[in-house]
Amino acid sequence: MTIFISIAAYRDPDLALTVRDCLERASYPEDLRFGICWQHDLNEPNLPFRDDYRFRIRDVNWWESAGACWARAEIMKLCEGEDYFLQLDSHHRFVQGWDAKLLYHTQRIGSDKPVISTYAPPFIPGEPAPISEPMQMNFDTFTEDGIPLFRGGIIPDWRELTAPTPARFVSAHFLFTIGRFVDEVPYDPDLYFLGEEITLAIRAFTNGYELFHPHEPILWHEYTRSYRAKHWDDHVAENGIRVPWHHRDILSRQKVAGFLQKPTVGRFACGLARTFAEYESYAGISFRFRCVQDYTRHGMPPPNPVEFPDWAERTRIWEVRITVDREALAGLIIGDCHFWYLGFHDAFGQEIFRSDVFGGELYEYLGSDTPQIEITRKFASYRAPTEWTIWPVSLSHGWLEKMNGPIASDASSGVQ
């Protein structure tokens, strides 16, 4: 079972370390095939594994690079019919037997077209790989042009899972699937950065692929970028670059935004196995109205439960103000208070939104001498908030007594 490993590397000194760790921790290193788009200064020393038969390397002068999506598209041209496809960044560390785990998980899933993908837990170069909980991708926000952004979160109840859990989004830095993915969902070289992951998820889903997050750590990802050159730092007009990065970014974002508003079918668009509307229903997201269902916002596993048809039109931005008597919090000590759970619920007691109080905000409230504490939160929901809950957590005693109260009509407002 050969695995083609796609690595787009832009002037990254961690590339060789990533490849070495990948090989050393693989159960079947002889079955790995690497496709690398190495965007660098051609005067630099050659990569140490250049003469290894398992490697196919595309050398590119760094100033000729058109960005990550272009590089990933170039790498797909290096595939030679391998059984599986794994897309990575050039700054990872791996668990022992990572390849055997992925192969086993695809068997457990039982799908003809599985995709295993997530935002991997973080690591810091030069330090031992940490022991981490498995991560999932959660919706975060929409950009001003309607492109959704994501954030990582720990998979709820992951210790109880025995197989990968369904996902609604995919990561560009860790994506494992069958080999024919490169033909059915080829990378769009015209994309630059924002929108890469949501278009990839939609295109995979509409081509019949089933999306999953691994229920255990497979690898770690370096997120800080503090030691690496970035494409958008180098590719500016002042450096004599023929096409500055922001020109590519503008055209790319226009293409993504246009696709999300008026989806089409094609090589770099939707497939024929499912519709764009079916993806929206599965993921609990409306691109037209730029909103998501509460179930999605809470990071619950898809598919989403059936909602009323006009949920997106009914979604409002709620700004809620609550007031708490300081006497009710008199027993809390600044040094012993961990955080406050802060949740807002509908008329049926279902949580609509959670935004905990911690850090500087918490210390400001506890250190104030005003008789009342006023807290304001803004969030989107198609359900009206009717009740708030504050549940303090102490470092020494854990969860303390819960406080809640009604949200008065004059304490909240909902706007389009």
Structure write-up:
- This protein has 416 residues and is of the alpha+beta class.
- The chain has two domains: 1-314, Spore Coat Polysaccharide Biosynthesis Protein SpsA, Chain A (Alpha-Beta Complex), CATH 3.90.550.10; 315-415, Immunoglobulin-like (Sandwich).
- 22% of the residues lie in helices and 29% in strands.
- It is built from eleven helices and 22 strands.
- The strands form six sheets. Strands 3-2-1-4-10-6-11-9 form an eight-stranded mixed beta sheet, with helices on both faces.
- The chain starts with a strand and ends with a strand.
Give a concise summary.
The protein is of the alpha+beta class and 416 residues long.
Produce the secondary structure layout.
Layout: E1 3-10, H1 15-24, E2 32-40, E3 55-61, H2 68-76, E4 84-88, E5 92-94, H3 98-109, E6 114-117, E7 135-142, E8 148-154, E9 165-166, E10 174-178, H4 181-184, H5 196-206, E11 210-213, E12 219-221, H6 231-234, H7 245-261, H8 276-283, E13 285-286, E14 291-292, H9 294-297, H10 311-314, E15 316-325, E16 337-345, E17 351-354, H11 359-367, E18 372-381, E19 387-394, E20 398-399, E21 403-406, E22 412-415
Parallel strand pairs: 1-2, 1-4, 2-3, 6-11
Antiparallel strand pairs: 4-10, 5-12, 6-10, 7-8, 9-11, 13-14, 15-18, 15-22, 16-17, 16-19, 19-20, 19-21
